[in-house]
Amino acid sequence: MLKLIATDMDGTLLNNNHEMPTKTFDIINQLHARGIIFAVASGRGHHSLLKIYDQIKDDIVFITNNGAIIIDKGEIIFANFIDRELALTIMAAIEKLPNLSLMVKGLKMSYFFGEEILATIPSEILEDHFPKHKVVDGFAEIPLNDEILQIVVYDPDRNPEKNAYAKLLDFEKDATLAVSGEYWLDIMAKDINKGNALAKLQEILGADSIETMVFGDQMNDYEMMKQAYYSYAMDNAVLKIKEVANFVAPSNEDEGVIRIIENFLMMTS
């Protein structure tokens, strides 16, 4: 019997227009009634996810910032932050790379380095992913009382693996780098990823691999795939995620997450 279902958001639960299937909240309520925990595991920050799921936020566990934070019923039950000195070093290297935009996700809000960045990011992405943000002129303007969860690189050329990740590999000894979509490279503290965060949640819930189902599509879902027997790569997933997953779900455009969960609910009713 399943105890835990965790899904990525963009490219997985959401369609390509960043829309949620209409049945999502009803499915979550059905899982909650059966005592099955539904978790959202995303590279997005907690401000974005709490806004989306405001109506049922106490019925969901949030694994945000690629595993840097776990939130349950409004309380942070796990958090790991990037050392500020390391963050400054990494950002200095990123600023030397051409055509990339840099931002920092803090516990309190997100920080964009320069007004010109806002013009490079589509307004719908800005509003959806960064509901709490401000523009700063430099690292020194990030308040000392706001912990750094994540450094984010935005690549308008849609090739962050080549344009950013490949050029920052030297930092993998001190930090975690993960391509999280066609635009994004996320950088977190060492050993922070969705898989390790899911393992912490499994330990808290007393759930093992055979009692866990996960869904994902991008490389920031890779470690999470290994934590569940019922690991589903979306049909639109990158090849490496399909190789590590045990099953394939219909694409995000075909509401694959909801269809698989609905089938499970019908089979076990």
Describe this structure in words.
It is built from eleven helices and 14 strands. A hairpin with a 3-residue loop joins β6 and β7. With 269 residues, the chain is α/β, with parallel strands linked by helices. It has helices at residues 9-13, 24-33, 46-52, 84-94, 116-120, 123-129, 160-163, 194-205, 222-225, 239-244, 256-267, and strands at residues 4-7, 37-41, 60-64, 69-72, 75-79, 101-106, 110-113, 133-136, 148-154, 175-179, 184-189, 212-216, 230-234, 247-249. α2 packs parallel to α11 (256-267). It has two domains: 4-79 and 193-267, HAD superfamily/HAD-like (Rossmann fold, 3-Layer(aba) Sandwich); 84-189, Hypothetical Protein, Haloacid Dehalogenase-like Hydrolase, Chain: A, domain 2 (2-Layer Sandwich). The mean pLDDT is 95. The N and C termini lie close together (12 Å).
Write the layout of secondary structure elements.
Blueprint: E1 4-7, H1 9-13, H2 24-33, E2 37-41, H3 46-52, E3 60-64, E4 69-72, E5 75-79, H4 84-94, E6 101-106, E7 110-113, H5 116-120, H6 123-129, E8 133-136, E9 148-154, H7 160-163, E10 175-179, E11 184-189, H8 194-205, E12 212-216, H9 222-225, E13 230-234, H10 239-244, E14 247-249, H11 256-267
Parallel strand pairs: 1-2, 1-12, 2-3, 7-8, 12-13, 13-14
Antiparallel strand pairs: 3-4, 4-5, 6-7, 6-9, 9-11, 10-11
